[in-house]
């Protein structure tokens, strides 16, 4: 059965890539909505109520129609690829990638929890903390892409240093942006 599906392997790759892009777009956008939603809490009425109601609706729509379905299809396409080519599980790079994917899945479900919290007017993180949280998805994405593209040629020490350098640069950029916004 699997041998008859092997010619379709590239279709699963294409599906995987398209829906990973959609998933990442959903994660990036949902965090922007969380930030604006949180900042709307500081607005005067009736602007505050109007904005919070709109952000709650936008978050639910994005989460339920784009981000979560894209995550599910990404995972299913990935599982299909591994089923068709189980030898990939013999490679170190695949296990590293899967480790980062597990981290991204955990990130996804924490974001799902934030959607529920904000729907119930529970603001547990401020906009600065949410900006930092948003950048964690960027770090996962960069790590996964580099592991997949470089595979076995990846020097793990340089890769780890590079990811940590990107994370540090992102945190500095977020801090600088915060200072810039406060000066306005």
What would your notes on this structure say?
The chain has 6 helices and no strands. The chain is mainly α and 184 residues long. Helix 2 (9-40) packs antiparallel against helix 3 (47-84). The protein is flat. The N and C termini lie far apart (63 Å).
SSE topology:
Elements (H helix, E strand, L loop, with lengths): L1 H4 L3 H32 L6 H38 L7 H28 L7 H24 L5 H28 L1
Structure characteristics:
184 residues; mainly alpha; flat; metal-binding; oxidoreductase
Question: What's this entry about, in short?
Answer:
This protein is an all-alpha fold and 184 residues long. The protein is built from 6 helices and no strands.
% residues in beta strands: under 5%
Q: H/E series, N to C?
A: HHHHHH
Poorly predicted regions are: none
In quaternary terms, these chains amount to: single chain
Task: Estimate the global geometry from the Cα principal axes.
Answer: flat
Instruction: Tell me how many strands there are.
Output: 0
What's the N-to-C terminus distance? 63 Å
Radius of gyration (CA) equals 19 Å
What's the total helix number?
Answer: 6
Query: What profile does the largest beta sheet have?
Result: none
User: What integer is the average pLDDT?
Assistant: 90
């Amino acid at each position: 059965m699997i041998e008859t599906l092997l010619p379709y392997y590239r279709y699963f790759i294409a599906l995987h890539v398209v829906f990973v892009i959609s998933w990442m777009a959903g994660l990036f956008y949902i965090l922007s909505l969380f930030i604006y939603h949180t900042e709307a809490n500081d607005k005067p009425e009736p602007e505050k109520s109007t904005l919070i109601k709109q952000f709650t609706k936008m978050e639910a729509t994005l989460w339920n129609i784009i981000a979560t379905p894209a995550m599910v299809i990404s995972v299913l396409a990935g599982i299909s690829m591994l089923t068709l080519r189980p030898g990939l599980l013999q490679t170190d790079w695949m296990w590293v990638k899967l480790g980062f994917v597990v981290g991204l899945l955990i990130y996804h479900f924490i974001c799902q929890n934030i959607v529920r919290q904000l729907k119930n007017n529970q603001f547990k993180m401020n906009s600065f903390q949410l900006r930092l949280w948003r950048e964690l998805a960027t770090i996962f994405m960069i790590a996964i892409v580099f592991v997949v593209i470089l595979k076995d040629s990846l020097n793990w020490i340089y890769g780890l240093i590079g990811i940590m350098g990107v994370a540090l640069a992102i945190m500095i950029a977020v801090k600088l942006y915060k200072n810039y916004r406060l000066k306005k």
